[in-house]
Amino acid sequence: AQSVAQPEDQVNVAEGNPLTVKCTYSVSGNPYLFWYVQYPNRGLQFLLKYITGDNLVKGSYGFEAEFNKSQTSFHLKKPSALVSDSALYFCAVRDRSGGYQKVTFGTGTKLQVIP
Amino acid sequence: SAVISQKPSRDICQRGTSLTIQCQVDSQVTMMFWYRQQPGQSLTLIATANQGSEATYESGFVIDKFPISRPNLTFSTLTVSNMSPEDSSIYLCSAADVYHEQFFGPGTRLTVL
After folding, report:
1. Which residue in B30, B101, B104 is closest to A43 by CB distance?
2. pLDDT per position as a tens digit, A66-83
């Protein structure tokens, strides 16, 4: 079975400061990892993914995430937060083995960027 | 990336009625899914819509309540049948190719009175 944990329901950060949204995962094999963002009254938008290769993945809107296999983590980061980054962020995992596996989503972390 | 549209974007329905939600993808995709989401909360997978065959339902969801069609590789419908207030939620359509990320529609916000 696979699972995703987002330990923080909400993260508050001042505009211009670096931000981190935490995610840890559990899969039996090797993972595909994803981050999505959801703005109010909108669907989920894809931000970035880790498939294989470099552990540091760069995505949309200046976001990046670092895959850490030993810590089974995939934290989302941005060097300088914008007020417009305020949204709900979901981490997701999928087992890479055995054909298409369902994606498991985390519970979400609300990011609040304070002007 | 795939662009996904859903109709209707929102609806208010009476208890005991049914609503069909349409999902259109702008390119052929291997996989299509239907999710339910309470505002501000995580996603719950209802079913995988299989092209030309019956959908694969997750635990707690049944075909009689949530019939799904997928006549081709770009279109699917979800019907919420015999609705009750507990069915009030956001319903999201999603699509993916086998080894790629999923993309999501804007959602259908359903309120059942």
Report:
1. B104
2. 999 999 999 999 999 999
Closest CA to A46 of A90, A110, A103, A97: A90
User: For residue A111, what are the CA distances in angstroms to A45, B2, B46, B109?
Assistant: 15, 26, 27, 23
What tokens does A78 get? 């941005």
Task: Tell me if chain B has a CB within 8 Å of the CB of A5.
Answer: no
Q: What is the pLDDT of residues B74-107, one digit of tens each?
A: 999 999 999 999 999 999 999 987 667 889 999 9
The whole-angstrom distance between residue A55's C-alpha and the CA centroid of its chain comes to 14
One-letter amino acid for residue B26 of the chain? D
Output the six-digit token pair for A35.
């981050």
Distance from CA of A46 to the nearest CA of B (A): 7
Distance CA A18, CA B58 (A): 39
